[in-house]
Write a structure and sequence with these properties.
The complex is a heterotrimer, with two copies of chain A and one copy of chain C.
Chain A: H1 2-52
Chain C: H1 2-36
Classes of the chains: A mainly alpha, C mainly alpha.
Amino acid sequence: KGLEEMRAQYIKAVSKIKRDMLCYIRESKERAAEMIKAEVLRERQETARKMRK
Amino acid sequence: KGLEEMRAQYIKAVSKIKRDMLCYIRESKERAAEMIKAEVLRERQETARKMRK
Amino acid sequence: AARYLEEEELRSQHILECLNAHIEELKKDSEKTVRQF
């Protein structure tokens, strides 16, 4: 009986760790997308400046 | 005895998760550094081109 | 750039599969232990 409880607790603990990792991974993907977006924007402005010259 | 065995199983699972995450994070850092290095290089070439003009 | 994001997507899917595999392994092993005792 006790073992069943322990098993359930251990499984709950690793699932929580996984949830936290999912969160971290999602955030790091969002950050990467932000970085790229800013990069593309800068490129556009740069090209626009050149065109004007 | 059963409890000890289960505890060992839990610790094994958590250490595998930790190892995989550390690997993932290190890779992310390396890739980001690569991207930035490429970016700086492009900037230099851009400036060099402008200087020549 | 788009390639970079694509690779990020692939890497995150891969790591998730790994995490799930470890959790499944723990579930199976601990199930065996419970039955044993």
